[in-house]
Design a protein that fits this description.
A hairpin with a 2-residue loop joins β1 and β2. This protein has 2 domains: about 80 residues, no CATH class; about 70 residues, Gyrase A, domain 2 (2-Layer Sandwich), CATH 3.30.1360. The chain is rod-shaped, with a radius of gyration of 39 Å. The N and C termini lie far apart (about 90 Å). The protein is α+β, with helices and mostly antiparallel strands and about 180 residues long.
């Protein structure tokens, strides 16, 4: 829309506005002085409330944006920490003095998990350890033991909660490159 405002157009618009505001002006003049003061105060209060509402909503929007930026910064820092932990974790190598075999791992599992019926199977370089009815804390200790002693990290871990509080059924898979069972 290409509208050009010249002096004649502005004068016409002013005359039209003046003509439309004439009834309002007559109404204003018919009001008593007290009514005019009340309407003036109401108008001023309305303008103040409108301005307050605009500024308040703008400040709330600004605060929301600041909170989102802070949340993004926290997520960024957390992702940097995760990357750093991953790199440190990735550099972990097994100890040279600990060469695992399935018999040693089965003995370790029975001792740490405090369970005699631990199944340790090796199929195609995948070591599977299964046990039922073991304490959750013992499972975590066993995982930590395998990581520290043999440098083994699970590729698959399934922990099923049992009805008895604190006890779980566990199945752990590792890529195994140790000595085969004797």
């Amino acid at each position: 829309m290409n509208t050009k405002f010249d002096l004649n157009t502005i004068k016409e618009m002013y005359a039209e506005l003046k003509k439309r505001l004439e009834p309002l002006k007559e109404y204003w003049l018919r009001l008593s002085q007290r009514d005019q003061q009340i309407l003036t105060v109401v108008f001023i209060l309305s303008v103040i409330v409108l301005i307050y509402t605009l500024f308040n909503s703008a400040l709330m929007y600004r605060n929301k944006l600041i909170a989102e930026v802070e949340q993004s910064k926290l997520q960024y820092e957390e992702s940097i920490n995760i990357i750093r932990d991953y790199k440190r974790f990735n550099r972990t190598i097994p100890n040279d003095f600990s060469t695992p075999n399935t018999d040693v791992i089965k003995t370790d599992a029975e001792q740490i998990l405090a369970e005699k019926d631990v199944e340790v199977t090796l199929i195609d370089s995948v070591l599977n350890i299964k046990s039922n009815n073991v304490e959750f804390d013992n499972v975590i200790s066993f995982l930590e033991q395998l990581r520290k002693s043999y440098g083994l990290f699970p590729i698959k871990l399934k922990i099923t909660r049992l009805p008895v509080s604190g006890f779980v059924a566990v199945s752990i898979d590792y890529v195994f490159k140790g000595e085969p069972p004797k």
